[in-house]
Specification:
The chain has 2 helices and 5 strands; from the N terminus they run βαββββα. By secondary structure, it is an alpha+beta fold. It has a single domain, classed as Thiol Ester Dehydrase, Chain A, CATH 3.10.129.10. The chain has a 5-stranded antiparallel sheet. Strand 3 and strand 4 form a beta hairpin. The protein starts with 16 loop residues before the first strand and ends in a 5-residue tail after the last helix. Belongs to the 4-hydroxybenzoyl-CoA thioesterase family.
Length: 153
Amino acid sequence: MTSVPDANDLTSADFPVHWPVLTRWADNDMFGHLNNAVYYQLFDTAINGWIAGGAGVDPLTIPELGIVAESGCRYFAELAFPERLSVGLAVTRLGRSSVTYRLGLWKEQAATEDARPLAALGHWVHVYVDRVGRRPVPIPDAIRSLLATACLN
């Protein structure tokens, strides 16, 4: 059985997929750092961008939808505009109709740095449902194949 690493020990090296994202001026809150809701937007953008591009599906027309059933985030360091960031994705559970992601967020730095410290650690659960009836359905094959490339176990 694979042991689960302590959140404080995770780095960018613990994520098979790295998705670059940019901050925007409007992302900063009145305290001068990224508003907590922005982290969720970045996670959502990375997951759906990776699936759309990697599985070759159009999220506006595919008959199955991955809807968010659960999400959470722990914050370790402040981020702010203007910064280049990366979202890391790892699949920690791949079920019949649901997938659980581990998500990391860190500052992009020189490509020579192999393990960047996390500024945030998130988790996200998508449940796939029929677009019309909103009942759980199996994860589409093209998406399942892509998800399998990021599985940790």
